[in-house]
Amino acid sequence: MGWGRGEAVDGSETGWGRQAEPAPRWRALLDRARLAGRGGEHHDVDHRAEETPAPPPETLPRRAGTGWTGRAQAVARPADPSFGAEPAYRVEATYRVEPAYRVDPRYGGEPAYQAEPAYRAEPDPRAEPSWRAEPVRPPEPGYPEPPPRGRGTASVESRYALLDGGGYQPDPPPAESRYALLDRGRYRPEVHPVPEPARIEPPRIEPARVEWRAPEPETELERAAGVLRRELGGPRVLAFANPKGGVHKTTATVLAAATVGSVRGRGVLAWDDNELRGTLGLRAGSARHARTIRHLIHDLAQIEILEGATLLEHLDDYLRHASDGSYDVLAGEESPRFAQRLDQFTVKRVLELLRRTHDVVCVDTGNNVESPNWRTVMQAADQLVVTTVPREDAAFSADWMLDLLHEEGMGELADNAVTLISCPTPGRTPLQDDLERHFATRTRAVAVVPYDPALETGSSIEYHQLQAETRQGWLKAASVMLEPFAR
Hints:
With 487 residues, the protein is α/β, with parallel strands linked by helices. 32% of the residues lie in helices and 8% in strands. The chain is built from 16 helices and eight strands. An eight-stranded mixed β-sheet has the order 3-4-2-5-1-6-7-8, sandwiched between helices. Helix 13 runs parallel beside helix 15 (430-442).
């Protein structure tokens, strides 16, 4: 796409949509002079100008100090006459000189450009009245004196000294202030080394040596107490028997229960199964009530169906307790007519009930070897204890009972029995040695308990009132009784 020479595109000189540069003043005058010589066209222009009066000319803005009058309106250039006008073609009014471009008689021309005055050098800084030289400070001790600064020296260079060809000469670096380290954040206080303490060699420790030593053997009493504390593998029934009276069956039953109960703490009971008015309830336990085996058998059907804590709570109403609470007591009936009601089935039911509530049950069997309750206890016993005293009649009765057990088919119970010899008097007799050797061949073991004056009166038995030797003898005897069952 092209344009003619005389055409103006969008009122600009370039035609690229960019605002044209303002036309100089001399060009506008030249265009008026050229257009003034064409009479016909000028007449047409004047005629048209009379038909349509043009707006008054705008006063051109001026810029102070430069002589430039501002931007003029774009005026299109006339067409080149060498091409000739086409028939019926009339130049548009945009190519006519408008009356607004007449020379203003008041225009006096632009002032001539005046050169700027020559640059004057700055006066000597020393001439400034407001500036005073800084006082010279004496150098601080330990620091070198700083060199003099450029300001205030004899020779003052111009600010254009570099342009004159003198070359760039940097000022010497200023002396470092004593606070420079603080300003740069690198201050580190002086640390004086702390002398290390004298090194003390630790004592040489020899490696530990494991030396095996055989454990000290337990004393006999410690071993006996350890046996009584062990698990027994279930409830155990100890039957104290001898057909002869006055051989310390009741005493042995009470003291065995008291000894085991003092070590184990609970779960031990002493039962008087004597069909002929036994005295165990009188010599052991506190008489807090008068209930006996007869009352228990009367309510046995209601009690044996109970379980756990409920059973213990209801059974406790029929039991008596030792003064120290180490064992319980089931007293026998004092009426001789009650013996007819203790059949073997009732005795078995009572034993099964006591096994459910206690770990060790010590039974005083009485003197009648032909009674059903005596035979039933012997058949249910886990350990037989043959009680005797160092007398011939008592020893003969015990020996006869062992033969009877062999005849009745309970020979194993007789062979594993423990013979308990109680000394009714202080001192040791020759007969006691003979009895110990004899029963050592008939039973598993023989235990001897010493004499104690607290037992001679036949009154209530208090275990803690016995002599130390007596308690130690019963501790050894009780451990012999339960040793086969200890786990």
